[in-house]
Specification:
Elements lengths: L5 E2 L5 E2 L3 E8 L3 E8 L6 H15 L22 H10 L3 H5 L11 E8 L1 H17 L9 H16 L10 E9 L19 E9 H4 L4 H18 L8 H10 L4 E5 L28 E5 L9 E8 H21 L1
Parallel strand pairs: 6-8, 8-9
Antiparallel strand pairs: 1-2, 3-4, 5-10, 6-7, 9-10
Helix pairs in contact: 4-5, 4-7, 4-9, 5-7, 5-9
Length: 331
Amino acid sequence: MLPSPRALEDGTLLIPPMAIQVTIFPNSGFAICINFSHVVVDGKGFHHFMKFWASVCGSKENNIVLPSHDRDMIEDPNGLKAIFLETVWNSPRERFMSLGHNVLSDNNHVRLTFVLTRDHVDNLKKYVSTKCQRHGLEISHLSTFVVTCSLFWVCKIKLEQDIKTNDDEELYLCFWLDCRTRNIGELEIPSTYFGNCLVNGIVAIKRSKLVGQNGIFEAAIAIGSKVREMQSEPYKCAERLKSIFSEVATIGHRMLRIASSPKLDVYETDFGWGKPKLSEVVHLHSQLVSLSDCRDKEDGIIEVGVALGRTQIHKFNTILEEELANIVVCD
């Protein structure tokens, strides 16, 4: 957990950027638990820093490039800096005082990691592609990320069907896209850039579509379209950041958030003792799902972290298995 932010005499708010805890298990190994502030860096920049740190400590030849802290490479032709700063200055101080204190502590919740194999992912992609052909549609972006998010979003919403719900209400999926190495005019940011270089995407679908027979297909079409739009115009609507996050605050209970990414290659962080046995996002909650690469590439293609109540997790697992079985039948 990060130390609490504190106000200095001149009113400046001092926010600790990172906290590290190393726990040693005698004759078994050790665990490194790290909490960092997104005010300083995003996941891509943080994990590149971790790999560089590990390469310095490890016995292998250091071939990891130093993180880049050059802020001068960031161009701002649309004047977004002023807009973003205004959003920060107008945010309640209490929001920043609670940074780093969102670690899951509810004993009624259980964290589980699900592994999708290459066959799972390939079947999902074939299923969506076949549906597109039958409907005369062309999906703009069909990736492992798209079909994984679609599958777990549908399973999460079907889990809620025991609760009284409104089928006409809109539900939302929120995720982030890394803009490094994307050529945007004259702007090109290297993959080693240490800082925040993300854009936010929000997808909206009615509950009735997600729980319907074509739920995964509907979700994949919507998510794929949003990803393609963000890739071609990553800063579209960026000037509306303040209003977008105000809207998000009112729909939080209807929004599933996606954290991390399999492209971060967390299992490639080697301090000299080989790959980590396990990597987890510990601050998961019922409205947050994490994605990661797999430690054993032969057994799986993507790991998905989920946190749910103890009475819900078994039902969620059953729903997930049924959805995957149905995909195979429809293939």
